[in-house]
Amino acid sequence: MCKIEFFDDSFNLLSAHMVNVQSIGTDYLTFEPSQISIHGESKAQRGCFCRLSGTISFEGIVSDIQPTAAGETVSVRPLQALFDFDVFSTAYDDVANFIFLSISENVVNNADALQNRPVQVTNSAPAALRQIESTETKVNLLTVISNALKIFGIAVDCKLDLSRNCKKLVVDIRQRTETKTIEADKPNIISKNITLGNSYGSVNKIIIRRTQKDNEKGTVSVIDTVPFYLHTDGSVSAEDTNRVVPVFWELEDISDCDDWQSKALTKATEKLTPQQFDNEIVLTYRKGDRVVRPMQLRLGTQVTVFYGKKPYSSILTAVSVQKDTVTLTFGCVRVALTKKLILERRNK
Question: Residues 6 or more apart from 328 whose CB is under 8 A from it?
């Protein structure tokens, strides 16, 4: 059994209930809700915070409440779902700083005090060139957060601080550096479901033209053409070394500008980096497994999974906790139809 507690924006306790939860978790690609059945009325409202404790621990935000014959079904999303809103797509050099400023300006220090939420945000990621290309004037911040993890290993960690002197949603933007080697054929795995992307046909080279338009004649001339490559270690650059083969390529045009080289590298990194995680590897362990220690693995950890004696590069993108077990999902692919539809909507 577990206890679920609901809190308003000032972290006043609304209600508490004993519940039987089979499974709950966080999928960093979809941020979809989990459903919890409650006997009686919860007094919860959409947008309020919740905390689950007992055999399963979880902190989240209520996204929906549906009445049932016995009480209610409450849908809860991970705490990061608080940032499921649009922001203007301004120019930036570092996506970690962009996320920090977007959170600060929209829900921490906004001129409209009623728009602010009880959030304390820090950016612990070292400064670096991390750009995500966008042709739109606005972007969904939660989509940026998801892409930042897939492309640059930037994670947005969230937790509730309910201590008397704080009572905040504490947010820390971090650079993930952890790596792990996992053997998927070992007997310590309770169950596994592995979908390996067929690397044959996946793009590993992008050819970008530097173009210039003559506004009077309407003609476009090509100043330069630069190829960028996906390397065997997962990095992307214009260096023709240690490349992934066989070669499959895409073509792109970027207009001439002062920072064309950095824009081209940004486009190439965004296009090529997720290709190395073209898989969905779902492994279930005992919570106390001493080989992998699954409860200690953090979202964004890059892994090498050995399956059939072959190594596959992946990244931890979802964790689901059950009573005695934990299910880890690696990769940037989702096989389930509902998850596919969420990803399609998010990537538009």
Answer: 282, 283, 284, 285, 294, 297, 316, 318, 319
Is 313 within 8 Å of 180 (Cβ atoms)?
Answer: no
Angle at 125 (CA atoms; ends 123, 128), nearest 5 degrees: 120
**Is 80 exceeded by the pLDDT of residue 248?**
yes
Angle at the Cα of 193 (from 192 to 195), degrees rounded to 5?
140
Kind and range of the H or E run holding 268? helix 260-272
pLDDT in tens, 85-110: 999 988 788 999 999 999 999 999 99
Note every long-range contact of 242-246, with CB atoms under 8 Å and residues 24 or more positions apart, other chains counting: 243/204, 243/205, 244/199, 244/204, 244/276, 245/204, 246/200
Nearest residue to 28 via CA among 296, 348, 342: 342
Query: What is the average pLDDT across 109-116?
Result: 95
3-class state of residue 342 by DSSP: helix
Closest CA to 34 of 69, 9, 2, 70: 2
